[in-house]
Amino acid sequence: MASFSLYDKNTTFSGVYVVFMVNRMQTLYLLLIMPSYLVHPYMIWVILTLGILSQLNLLLLSKWFSSNAASRGYQGFVQLFGERTLRFFAFLGLFIILIKIIVLTLGIGTVVHQYIYPSMNSNWFILFIFLICYYIAAQGLEKTVSFVVIAFLSTTWMLIAFYPFFLPPTASLHNLYPLIPTEGSFIPWKQLLFVWSALSGPEFLVFLTPWLKPQQNMLKYMTMANAFTVVEYAILFIAALLFFGSTYLSKTRFPLVDMIGYLQFPLFERMDKMLISIHLFILVFVISIFILYFYGAVRIVLGTSDKQTTRFGFTTCWLVILASSVITNEWLWKSGEEQSLWLNLEVWSRAVTYLFVPALLLALTKLKEKF
């Protein structure tokens, strides 16, 4: 009977994969709802400013990637934290990963239910996505990472579909004003938190270090991904402002999807359905990666990370995630308040991990090297 190996290392991935992974992780769900959260034209400066600050975080992360601890993979984490502390962080990571999987799946599921299959029970969508993710993740981490090429190339072109919203008579230039807030004491804490969390994603590369080519310029590739994401956020937010204006932008839940619904093409009557369906490639990739992360964290918590992976253990983890998603969808995702609570949990978890993980890893690495 063939062994069930999920984390074998037979190849390493170049910086191009880093660009693809970081960018697609950042532009899955929060991208679709960002315009309705930012609303005001001067939030363009928030996107650009936090994009620059994010670069400082990437600098810290790149310095850790060049350390000896990073090159040692799991043993490097044991060296930094110790076995017991690492198990504790892995246990906390289980909840963070589970929140991400639930919010991303149910969030995109809400879009699919609203625009494509309004009469379908949303639990069928969850099962359908998780079956695909199970198949991809069961192929192993290397093949799952390779799937990002399909996810990136099949979706990145969709930015071009929004060009009509920059042209008259659709675009209304006065909707871009004011570019400076008129309220003297205005401090957009919620918007700052939202945009910062939307830029998270590079910190999850630390778990893929053994599969990344050594001695490559990680800062360059992460910078390319970060810059592309910031430009993408800014372009789509400006397009939404030009079309809706601040007054109406806050009244629509998924403004970018609504905008695509207004486009008319000779070959496609419902462009929004097609683009939503293609966008699911990103969801499948991200959830597949997180399922493997979840199983890996469980193995660390149980102290079995040095043993062979098993299909029973992997399937059990998959069933736990599936059951958690269905239960949340049935009883904890019905009202707007409940969905906002889950979204806030996701936003805060993303913001916190992106803010502290790079700094913590680099600080501990420097301390270990010094003492």
Entry keywords:
69% helix, 371 residues, mainly alpha
Account of the 3D structure:
With 371 residues, the protein is mainly α. Helix content is 69%, strand content 0%. It is built from 15 helices and no strands. The protein has helices spanning 15-26, 30-38, 43-65, 68-71, 74-81, 83-115, 122-137, 141-146, 148-155, 189-198, 218-249, 255-262, 271-302, 311-331, 336-370. Helix 2 packs antiparallel against helix 10, helix 6 (83-115) runs antiparallel to helix 13 (271-302) and helix 6 packs antiparallel against helix 15. The longest helix has 35 residues, at 336-370.
Low-confidence stretches: none
Helix segment tally: 15
Query: Ends: how far apart?
Result: 48 Å
> How would you describe the shape?
globular
Mean pLDDT: 91
Q: Strand-and-helix sequence, N→C?
A: HHHHHHHHHHHHHHH
What would you report as the Rg, rounded to the nearest angstrom?
21 Å
Largest sheet: none
Q: Strand-residue fraction? A: under 5%
DSSP E strands, number? 0
